[in-house]
Amino acid sequence: MKKLRWAMDGGFWELDMSTPTTLEGVARAVPDDPLPLGLSRGTRLSRPNQIDFFQRFMAMPFVPSSSISTHGFSLQRVFAFPFSENWIVSLVGQFNFQKFLSSVNEGGGLLQPSNSSWLQGIGRHFSDKSLYALGLSSELLITPDDTLVVGLEAHGDNKAPRKKAVFRHKFPNHNLIMEAVWPGLFVDKSGTYWDVPLSMAIDLASVGCDSGASYHLSLLHNTGAPKQFDGNQTHEVPATLLPGLCAKGAFALKKNIDLWRSKAQKLKMVQPFDIFLSNPHISLSGVIGAVGTACLGDNSVRVQEDDELHGFKGFKLCVPRVKSALLADIFASASFTAQHGNFQKLFLDLTRLYARLDFPSGSKFLAGATRLTQDLYNSQQPSLEALQAVCPAATLSLQQQIAGPFSFRIDSGVALDLKNREWHLNVKEPVFAIEYALQVLGSAKAVAWYSPKHQEFMVELSFFEI
To answer: CA 164 → CA 13, 58, 150, 199, distances in Å?
Structure first.
């Protein structure tokens, strides 16, 4: 479900998720305090453009996807209409193949006694509107730096249609995104999808800086009562999705250090399958930053909830009378990358390991470290809450070439749960993937991934992403 590129980004605020739940193929992360910010990433290849590429250049008449909790196994196809060099309209069609087979089996097959022909039997099943979903998208390049995207998504099973309008502008070393979606799709840490009736956001982020200072500013406004995407109400609504206005600003410093980088010559006259994966190396990376949040509305109630649940006090100011709050915190991250092979040979010429430790809340870490020090100083048994607070969240990624452009990859989060006496180590949302490098494009790949926890499968296309 998660973007496999997450693990290599080392960034906290770029946290969109890929999902086959909707035709757009993307869900935002539910904001948290202080992280994630709940912001979408910068410009990415849209889902209609991905499907169009598969059809044109990879001879795929249909692109498969699957989400057991929503629509099952489905097939997608796109029809692109380039009205001009600057304007393209795409129509995405989705056929629920799994539901079609179920209806055929439940109906006793394609032929019925009342049917006079086989064509009438199959036509009766294909006429079911709930098998289909349509998505209409218009992408207009206003200027070389300005893009306007408008989309509409409708499902035959009477689900509420989804609409969106996105405006992107490229400043020097900055990206500006203004977005309105109704309803907006969010996903929380447990993997539950939420629909917010109306979500509007303004997002300004610095780009093009691999090492050094960067920042991210956002303004998010939610309207209406959030509901679970599946129609059930088995989970409590995340406080950050409640109606209100939220402004966030994050500033970070990043430093990359190469411990070793191979100087050996590559094979002559042999192009790597991916130019970004052609340099064996061992490197370290560190990030430290701060986040400030201002809330106005029902979403400010989360400040009080955090105090009751955790007991750790950072900088928090709450004014219940006017439903407002101010929060501030720090965060840090440390990562390790090791790669062997140049990804040029046909077999086993790429092995890549990535590990990252995240400390999303500095105030909780410092409070836990202080409490832990006091317990040890007073010869007391350390509390589980203090130990849990100083334990970072870990992300692991392993990629191994199988043969030629094909490689296997697994990404997973790892966390310690000290309150679980049976097993302290938890594997969080592992994702398994097969990647096919498109060698002729330098650095592009088709990725087929599966998430066993959410039982989701999807085929994606990415350019210039590790």
So the answer is: 21, 29, 6, 10
| Cβ neighbours for 210, distance < 8 A, ≥ 6 positions apart | 254, 256
Rounded to whole angstroms, the Cα distance separating 312 from 227 reads: 30
Q: Which two tokens stand for residue 444?
A: 């592009």
**Rounded alpha-carbon distances, angstroms, from residue 407 to 321, 343, 419:** 57, 10, 37
On the CB side of 200, CA atoms within 13 Å amount to 6
Model confidence over 308-331: pLDDT tens digits?
334 455 678 888 888 899 989 999
pLDDT of residue 230: 79
| Alpha-carbon distances of 31 from 60, 190, 219, 304, 358, rounded to whole Å | 36, 13, 12, 16, 16
d(CA 46, CA 88): 12
Query: Model-level pTM?
Result: 0.88
Rg value, the chain, Cα: 24
CA distance 295 to 242: 11
- The one-letter code for the residue type at 356 is R
